[in-house]
Write a sequence for this structure.
């Protein structure tokens, strides 16, 4: 047998064998055993969206909680310069009160928080620059709660004193009222009042 015949015969044999070896690179079990492939398949099927929804961000359940969430973010905002009743951020608080001007801003601060929470102060949502006006409106609107000594405020209630107002952040088991107040020592500050100290005139419940 000549060399040319041998070569031709080998080429013929290789051609017959190649269809049997071609399917080998495609293993059927790869998607179930490969974590990356599984993640890709899950994402394309919308599975990742379902996993992400297991821990949603909790939304405020009441207007009061919404107010607390807002004012917490403002703790530390201070007058610039101290004693001026003003700063770029305090100027934004004033914008929640129609006809406002630079001055004591505790009522501006609560008017801003109430407006941002969707429960603005005033019959027309105009806000108030004076504490007395806030409480007078609340009495007329049925939102005032006089402090009769046995009243337990809720988070988000506005707490009203003579010429000052703040927001109730929480109430301790012993009755201590924790607040966040604008224009407290020239800034937005957290304060605590154990029972019997600095009793409030009353509270304003907006929702």
């Amino acid at each position: 047998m000549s060399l040319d015949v041998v070569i031709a015969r080998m080429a013929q044999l290789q051609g017959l064998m190649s269809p049997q070896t071609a399917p080998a690179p495609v293993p059927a079990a790869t998607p179930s055993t490969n974590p990356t492939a599984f993640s890709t398949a899950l994402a394309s099927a919308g599975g990742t969206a379902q996993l992400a929804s297991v821990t949603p961000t909790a939304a405020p359940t009441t207007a009061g909680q919404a107010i607390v969430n807002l004012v917490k973010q403002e703790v530390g905002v201070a007058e610039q310069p101290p004693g001026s009743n003003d700063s770029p951020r305090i100027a934004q608080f004033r914008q929640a009160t129609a006809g406002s001007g630079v001055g004591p801003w505790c009522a501006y601060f609560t008017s801003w928080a109430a407006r941002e929470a969707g429960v603005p102060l005033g019959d027309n949502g105009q806000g108030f620059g004076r504490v007395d006006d806030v409480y007078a409106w609340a009495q007329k609107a049925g939102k005032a709660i006089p402090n009769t000594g046995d009243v337990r405020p809720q988070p988000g209630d506005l707490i009203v004193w003579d010429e000052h107002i703040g927001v109730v952040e929480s109430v301790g088991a012993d009755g201590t009222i924790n607040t966040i107040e604008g224009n407290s020592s020239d800034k937005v500050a957290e304060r605590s009042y154990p029972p019997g100290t600095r009793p409030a005139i009353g509270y304003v419940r907006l929702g």
